[in-house]
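dumping this here so i dont lose it
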């Protein structure tokens, strides 16, 4: 199945099974805003718990906070967001549609890549096992021609972005590449302008004195401005970290690909404060630690790659993304940045307060350097759902849709099913559920045939199902069915907790990180 079709199916699956709904749907939705349903919220909470515990429980020197979304507006001046948190925009005069100039160009680069990949796929089919891809890529005339155009465009684009960005040059690239508006099909473009991504609102009365405030575009600044509070009250010694999970808001112009790019989303960020000069060592360590966290979910190492930034923000001295293989290619899920002492120094300057750390080991004060790990909950959710979504053909020719979610993240861990709705089986099933519900999330289901019930649980990724039958009343055993293998075994009710709890717990997942 084409990856585009997989993605469409995933989006409708998310809706059909209560994972993600478009926001305000009965009013025809609100662009790039989504609600999480009864299954989605459980998966999301489990992702957050996995992250939080990996930070705060596994590291003695990392603590958490929960800062407010509203903050003093000067914070965003100090952080640079008021002046520089912009996207370059271009309008098509015929369709009146607005686009991000950089995204139009990146899409054009992706088109060259697609052309190359098509040539490679065609040749692979033609030559079969004898096909040497590396040789084909380095010798085929058409591939080389596309590659040369792609590289030249990439180079020109990188230079334009590095130069400020150079808005005139971005427009010129769009004209030279003859990029057309997907709606009107024309090249009738306006100038390129900068557009600030922060949402604003007013605090206080709307008469005199109302203050313009921003909805935070990242949670990180809430950590920076609480650095001193936490360091002093927690008697924290450098190196130490502060973790936070919370909502962030960006008025994204090109909001697309479902929950990949949203206007309201959630971040899990950790700022790690270190001694100046040690930051690149810590950057390396956090790069490895974070990749290990991702890989522990078991989707396969080939789903991940680093993308080291060539172009660094003026305050960063190293930055990398962890990218995940989504149905629409490798995409950023997490950013790891060495942010120097930029943010703390800026807040010192703008607030007039000293934010220094006195290091007793060297008897000196300094402004700490910071390594940041920043991951979007929603993007993580999307990566997990897209890797977990499977359509399988069964021996009897039927297909089943199954979410092969890591058991520790699955919304429901166990489905409890009486074989029939009579003969005391529902009562026995309830009795089992009443005991197990204290240990993990269970769902009771007695409607329809067992086959249909299994399909329903597969579709929401429930790792285990148990069936209570007449035999159960005599031998106190149930049939335990595994979601992935579909194998069934007879186990004693008294053993259920032992067998299942360990496999579905976040603690077990965390132990693999040690
Ligand atoms: N404090 C650093 C920071 O915010 P970022 O690269 O802009 O860095 C970090 O964002 C992560 O937040 C991204 O890797 C992504 O997972 C998530 N993210 C950013 N913008 C998003 C959006 N519009 N929708 C969903 N997730 C987003």
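and the seq i came up w/
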């Amino acid at each position: 199945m084409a990856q585009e079709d997989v993605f469409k199916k995933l989006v409708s699956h998310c809706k059909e099974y209560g994972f993600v709904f478009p926001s305000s749907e009965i009013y025809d939705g609100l662009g790039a805003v989504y609600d999480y349903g009864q299954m989605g919220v459980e998966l999301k909470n489990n992702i957050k718990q996995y992250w939080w515990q990996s930070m705060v429980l596994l590291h003695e020197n990392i603590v958490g906070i929960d800062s407010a979304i509203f903050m003093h507006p000067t914070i965003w001046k100090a952080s640079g967001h008021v002046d520089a948190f912009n996207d370059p925009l271009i309008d098509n005069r015929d369709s009146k549609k607005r686009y991000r100039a950089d995204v139009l160009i990146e899409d054009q680069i992706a088109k060259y890549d697609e052309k190359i990949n098509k040539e490679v796929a065609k040749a692979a089919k033609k030559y079969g096992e004898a096909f040497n891809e590396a040789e084909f890529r380095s010798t085929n005339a058409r591939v080389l021609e596309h590659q040369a155009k792609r590289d030249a465009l990439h180079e020109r684009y990188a230079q334009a972005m590095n130069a400020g960005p150079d808005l005139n040059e971005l427009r010129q690239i769009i004209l030279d590449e003859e990029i057309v508006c997907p709606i009107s099909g024309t090249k009738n473009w306006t100038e390129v302008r900068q557009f600030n991504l922060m949402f604003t609102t007013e605090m206080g009365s709307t008469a005199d004195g109302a203050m313009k405030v921003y909805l935070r575009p990242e949670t990180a600044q809430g950590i920076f401005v609480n650095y001193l509070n936490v360091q002093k009250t927690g008697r924290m010694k450098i190196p130490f970290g502060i973790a936070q999970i919370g909502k962030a808001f960006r008025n994204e112009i090109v909001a697309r690909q479902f929950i990949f790019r949203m206007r309201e989303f959630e971040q899990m960020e950790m700022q790690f404060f270190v001694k100046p000069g040690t930051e690149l060592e810590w950057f390396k360590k956090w790069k490895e630690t974070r990749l290990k966290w991702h890989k522990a979910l078991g989707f396969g190492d080939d789903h991940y790659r680093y993308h080291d930034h060539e172009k660094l923000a003026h305050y960063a001295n190293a930055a990398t993304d962890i990218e995940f293989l989504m149905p629409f290619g490798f995409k950023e899920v997490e950013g790891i940045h060495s942010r120097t002492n930029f943010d703390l120094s800026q807040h010192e300057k703008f607030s007039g307060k000293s934010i220094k750390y006195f290091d007793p080991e060297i008897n000196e004060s300094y402004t700490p350097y910071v390594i940041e790990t920043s991951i979007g909950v929603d993007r993580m959710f999307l990566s997990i759902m897209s890797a977990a979504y499977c359509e399988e053909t069964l021996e009897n020719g039927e297909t089943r849709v199954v979410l092969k979610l890591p058991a520790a993240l699955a919304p429901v861990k166990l489905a409890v099913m009486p074989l029939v709705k009579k003969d005391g089986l529902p009562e026995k099933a309830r009795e089992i559920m009443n005991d197990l519900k204290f240990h993990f999330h269970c769902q009771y289901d007695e409607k329809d045939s067992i086959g249909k019930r299994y399909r329903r649980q597969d579709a929401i990724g429930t790792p285990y199902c148990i069936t209570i039958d007449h035999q159960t009343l005599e031998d106190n055993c149930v049939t335990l069915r595994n979601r992935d293998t579909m194998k069934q075994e007879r186990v004693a009710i008294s053993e259920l907790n032992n067998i299942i709890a360990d496999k579905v717990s976040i603690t077990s997942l965390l132990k693999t990180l040690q």
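The domain at 1-68+215-393 is CATH 3.30.930.10 (BirA Bifunctional Protein; domain 2).
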